[in-house]
Amino acid sequence: MNNKQPPDSNKQFFLRYASLGSQLLAAIGLGVFLGLKADQWLHTSPVLACVLPLLVLSGIFIKIFRETSRKKNNE
């Protein structure tokens, strides 16, 4: 009847989502950097610097959605 999770489980839960947040920030930063470099190379206005991070963001959200929904289905 006691549904408390052990402390190790809470730590693993926190570390999993902290790593997803770090991965999100790094991927967006990489998308902006690559977008700026591509804009300089193609001599365009900052179109790619806006588009690439949005594509990266949507891809990561799809990945997070699949990971979290898979965990609910397995339990």
Write a brief structural summary.
The protein is mostly helical and 75 residues long.
Number of strands: 0
Gyration radius over CA:
18 Å
What is the arithmetic mean of pLDDT?
83
| Overall SS class | mainly alpha
Main sheet, how many strands, which sense, barrel? Answer: none
The portion of residues forming beta strands comes to: under 5%
Helical proportion, percent range: over 70%
Q: Give me the oligomer status.
A: single chain
Number of helices, counting only DSSP H or I runs of 4 residues or more: 2
**Morphology:** elongated
Span between N and C termini?
Answer: 18 Å
Number of domains: 1
Order of helices and strands: HH
Give start-end ranges of low-pLDDT stretches: none
Task: Please tell me about this protein's structure.
The protein is an all-alpha fold and 75 residues long. It has one domain. Helix content is 84%, strand content 0%. The protein contains two helices and no strands. It has helices at residues 7-42, 48-74. The longest helix has 36 residues, at 7-42. The radius of gyration is 18 Å and the shape is elongated. The two termini are 18 Å apart.
